[in-house]
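User: Here's a structure from my thesis project, written as structure tokens. My advisor, Dr. K., wants to see whether a designed sequence matches the one we expressed. Can you design one independently, without my sequence as a hint?
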């Protein structure tokens, strides 16, 4: 409980950095099939993504809904059997062995799409960290094109094109991400730390997804 209250006092950026510190992927002998990704810290990190998406506004409504649904799917699986489902890689392995990994509402697909949402968030923060004065609409569009657009069907892509005009300006978004009385330079430093942790983590996750033939799945 204390940890939850402490997290509420910090920005999403600092909270995400803390969650990532608990998410080091263990790869015995470099074998991704034997890797370990703890479920609860991963889901906590995804909740941080939801809060960042909320700050972007209605533009991210469709993506936010998908993220929330996928989090709930993995949470439900974890609650049914906490000890068995504490490692996300074991869930992938189990569903793959039963031929269920690529089914519409599988936990494997939920994990895949949450990973892609983290890809989007990482690229967005990286772009802002590099050039915090760049037009926010352009940043969101370029980030979406690079991370999510290749996997989205026409319905999701069309919804995004309609909503892109509703993004806040860059300064407003940066102000929303900051802690109270935090400077822009401090925020940029925190964003750089988060991205530096996210990038290698996501690279390992994508290797794991590839092992289970999940990396090329597109939305219908």
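Assistant: Designed independently from the structure alone:
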């Amino acid at each position: 409980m204390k940890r939850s209250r402490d997290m509420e006092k910090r920005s999403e950026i600092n909270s995400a950095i803390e969650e990532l510190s608990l998410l080091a992927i263990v790869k015995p002998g470099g074998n991704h099939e034997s890797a370990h990704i703890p479920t609860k810290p991963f889901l906590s990190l995804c909740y941080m993504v939801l809060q960042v998406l909320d700050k972007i506004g209605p533009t991210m409504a469709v993506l936010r809904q998908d993220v929330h649904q996928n989090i709930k799917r993995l949470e439900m699986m974890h609650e049914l059997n906490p000890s068995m489902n504490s490692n996300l890689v074991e869930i992938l392995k189990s569903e793959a062995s039963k031929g269920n990994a690529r089914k519409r509402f599988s936990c494997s697909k939920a994990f895949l799409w949450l990973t892609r949402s983290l890809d989007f968030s990482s690229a967005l923060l990286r772009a802002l960290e590099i050039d915090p004065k760049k037009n926010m609409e352009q940043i969101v569009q370029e980030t979406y094109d690079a991370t999510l657009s290749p996997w989205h069907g026409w319905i999701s892509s069309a919804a995004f094109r309609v909503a892109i005009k509703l993004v806040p300006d860059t300064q407003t978004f940066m102000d929303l991400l900051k802690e109270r009385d935090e400077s822009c330079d401090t925020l940029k430093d925190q964003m750089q730390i988060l991205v530096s942790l996210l990038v290698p983590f996501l690279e390992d996750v994508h290797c794991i997804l590839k092992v289970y033939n999940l990396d090329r799945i597109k939305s219908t």
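When you compare it with your expressed construct, this may help: The longest helix spans residues 184-211.
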